[in-house]
Amino acid sequence: MKIFFRVLLPILISALGTKTVCAQKKLKDVPLLTISDFRAPVPRNARFPIYFKYRIYYKIDTVIEKSNNKYQVFVKTKIEPRPEESYWDTERVHMKDVSQMLMHEQGHFYLAYICGSNIEKTMSAFNFTVNWKEEVRKKFFELLSSERESNTRYDEETAHGLRLKQQTKWNKWMQEELGE
What we know:
The protein has helices spanning 2-16, 98-125, 132-158, 164-177, and strands at residues 50-51, 54-65, 71-81, 87-88. The protein is of the alpha+beta class. The chain has one domain (21-177). It has a two-stranded antiparallel sheet. A two-stranded antiparallel sheet has the order 2-3. Helix 2 (98-125) runs antiparallel to helix 3 and helix 2 (98-125) packs parallel to helix 4 (164-177). The radius of gyration is 20 Å and the shape is elongated. It starts with a helix and ends with a helix.
């Protein structure tokens, strides 16, 4: 039995670990936002009438030591909405625009889930060194930076949900990315 754990198990794990496997987040996995998800008081000089805050976390799921001190690391991401940091200015958002604005903010949530899937995929395909813990942390923040760029581009191209044609284009892209 000892030989199994010392010799065969690492070989088996290495062989299995050569394929990149991660859970692709789907559209149905993303909770739908409602106005009640925006609980923070509106800041005095808020630039925008609506702000949705979330955080993306990761945890190490599996680490596989490959040959030549190379490591394959699988992470799981978690996207956590932050209602206590999200606000909705009911004085600046007219009732007729509520569904359109919710749809736009939902897009930010979709982008977070897309980012989470991309982080999981990218990490599992990357070869890390013996310093894998620090390298994973750095890679995570690097990938998170590209997520922020996507959100900025999303807001600019859609004018925060006001350009309906662009919003529709983004919605379609996000649905395709989330496998629907």
